[in-house]
Amino acid sequence: MPLPPESELIASGKSPEAFFLKGPQTIVCHFTVTNISKTLFSGACVYLAPGKTGFIPFNNNLIMKNKNMKIAMLAGIITYISACNSVKQEPQAAAVDKEQIKKEIQAKEDEYAATYNSGELKDIGYYADDATTFYQNRTPLVGKEAIIEFLRSDLVNNSNKIKFKTNEVFVSNDGKQIVEIGYFQVVDSSNTAINSGNYMSLFEKRGDKYVCVRDMSASDITFQ
């Protein structure tokens, strides 16, 4: 049987008494190594899956000479295949519903905006306790308490309203981390837009809910 393109024969041990066959598919084969005039040794090998390779070596003086030995060898190979195929497979992770997660993140943004717009920042469930937020032209705000205190001071002298729109989410394979890219707009008491721009937030799933651990924003308005 010719070897598949990605296969290779690798000598095992200090002397060439047996070979392993590695390749991209299940293979059962018999091999013989010869020099110019005689057979040096032969054997059989079984490849089942990446990282699972079996071999049955035969020195030349043990090469099968009758039907009974061939049957015994075949039975051994079949038993080996059955045993390896019965190994419990790792369960695959459940598929991540990206659209549902996007709705969950938008709901969190809506809740954040409603809390800010109420003017009563008693608590914002949006942020993790160890969150850090990056605003333009100022040092980062480290920790949930520092972020809330900054937002409180921002509301003292204005009655502005804010809204957020989640444009994209990039979800990790296990669904435990999310990067959100969105758009924000701030309007004054006359509903005139005074600021807008884009933001990026990193969420982690802690317990049964997502919390923001890092975020930053960039205004698309040039201030004089």
Strand content: 35-45%
Poorly predicted spans: 1-28, 46-66
What distance separates the N and C termini?
Answer: 78 Å
DSSP summary: helix tally: 3
Mean of the pLDDT scores?
A: 74
> Looking at the chains present, what oligomeric state does this protein adopt?
single chain
Strand-helix topology:
Elements: E1 8-12, E2 18-22, E3 27-34, E4 39-49, E5 52-59, H1 67-85, H2 98-118, E6 127-134, E7 141-142, H3 144-155, E8 161-171, E9 177-187, E10 193-206, E11 209-219
Parallel strand pairs: 6-11
Antiparallel strand pairs: 1-2, 3-4, 4-5, 6-7, 8-9, 9-10, 10-11
Question: Your description of this structure?
Answer:
There is one protein chain. With 224 residues, the chain is α+β, with helices and mostly antiparallel strands. It folds into two domains: 8-85, no CATH class; 98-219, Nuclear Transport Factor 2, Chain: A, CATH 3.10.450.50. It contains three helices and eleven strands. The protein has helices at 67-85, 98-118, 144-155; strands at 8-12, 18-22, 27-34, 39-49, 52-59, 127-134, 141-142, 161-171, 177-187, 193-206, 209-219. The strands form three sheets. A six-stranded mixed sheet has the order 7-6-11-10-9-8, covered by helices on one side. β3 (27-34) and β4 (39-49) form a beta hairpin. It is elongated and about 95 Å long. The N and C termini lie far apart (78 Å). Residues 1-28 and 46-66 have low confidence and may be disordered.
